[in-house]
Amino acid sequence: MKEPIIVYPDAPEHFDSILDEDRRARLGTIGKFSYFEVPATDADEFLGRIANAHVIILGWGLPAGVIERATHLELISFTGVGVGNFVDLQRARAHNIAVTNTPGYADVSAAEHTLGLILALARNLSWLDRDTRAGGWSKYYAGCHLARSDPRLGWLWRYCPASGQLRASAWNASSGLDPAAAGTSG
User: Fold this and answer.
1) Residue 76 backbone phi and psi in degrees, to 5
2) Number of structural domains in the chain
3) What backbone phi and psi angles, to 5 degrees, belong to 82?
4) Is the same domain home to 94 and 9?
């Protein structure tokens, strides 16, 4: 069997700092690995990057027509979730190309965003922002105070030590970690 060719045709800028030399070397033990940090300008350039690839690591969308023309392609490994929004899964299946996503991707970011939205909603930040930008400055608003005793948000205070620094943890089913241990690291 020939050595598989693995290509990341749309890697993010400074990819070499994200996927360090050791990890690139490990990919190199699987096959010949290459990547491009500059976005392709069109489908032809994208196809030129992956022309002989057996595997592509995909960070963004797959240009129309690439699946049909990528004759060696066997696997598309998408670096996030929601792969169906970036790859035509039916077309890939019709061409016998396996497609994977990255379980657990952005779990911590999603938890942080949720926490931010809870705080913004509880304190009416969007209304206060609009009011302030319009020249207002209201001392009175219909926000609520989040109390340590609030049973709806009791979990939140576990992550807020007395020092005032926010400490948060995240866990998901695909992490392989013990959910009880999620709150033990800072």
Assistant:
1) -115, 120
2) 2
3) 75, 35
4) yes
Q: What is the pLDDT of residues 26-49, one digit of tens each?
A: 888 999 999 998 889 999 999 999
Instruction: Give the end of a domain, one of 100, 115, 140.
Output: 100
Residue type, 120: A
Please state the pTM of the whole predicted model: 0.65
| Residue 10 and residue 32 in one domain | yes
Which of these, 38, 27, 82, 91, lies nearest to 64 by C-alpha position?
A: 91
Residues 9 and 71 occupy one common structural domain = yes
Return the HEC string of the chain. Answer: CCCCEEEECCCCCCHHHHCCHHHHHHHHHHCEEEECCCCCCCHHHHHHHHCCCCEEEECCCCCCCHHHHCCCCCEEEECCCCHHHCCCHHHHHHCCCEEECCCCCCHHHHHHHHHHHHHHHHCCHHHHHHHHHCCCCCCCCCCCCCCCCCCCCHHHHCCCCCCCCCCCCCCCHHHCCCHHHHHHCC
pLDDT digits (tens, 9 = 90+) for 137-184: 877 665 665 555 555 555 555 544 443 444 445 555 555 656 565 554
